[in-house]
Amino acid sequence: MGHAMKLVILDRDGTINRDSDDYIKSPEEWEAMPGTLQAIAKLNHAGWHVVVASNQSGLGRGLFDVATLNAVHAKMHKQLATHGGRIDAVFYCPHTPEDACACRKPLPGLFEQIGDRFSIELKAVPAVGDSLRDAQASAAAGCEPHLVLTGKSEGLRGKPLPEGWPPTTQVHDNLAAFVDALLARDGKTNS
Question: Distance between CA 105 and CA 115 in Å, rounded?
Fold first, then answer.
């Protein structure tokens, strides 16, 4: 098989699509942010696999059901396909904070499920999100944490990261900027 599969783990809300304080409860409410679908396709074309890891506590809160979540993801997959991109799998935590599960970010359970499913070592796998808990979960899983200044972190633009962020967190304007940085780095190591 040679070297391990090249994998990137992405958060969903605020990283790929616009976030909402009221949760994304229907396919109609799911709207990709400009440039994100093209960025995922660009990753795919460079040989990277993309998987989503998302807290979806709206399920546990009864705000929507699994059929609706599947419909949201069908929309995401379909829109992505029009750009020539694909997401291999969506892993989500359906629990509320009160459930005290191991999969809700900032805990690394979702990432560990991904490592198990694809039989890969998570060490240095780039993981991208828009919140502190995304960075904490990825660092706890041994991934390389990347922050995009969209969604929850728009307010951090032009500021240093506050205390408490994993020290290895790399910061990018948005998903497209992350992809460009990753592919530039990838090109250097592969040439």
Answer: 15
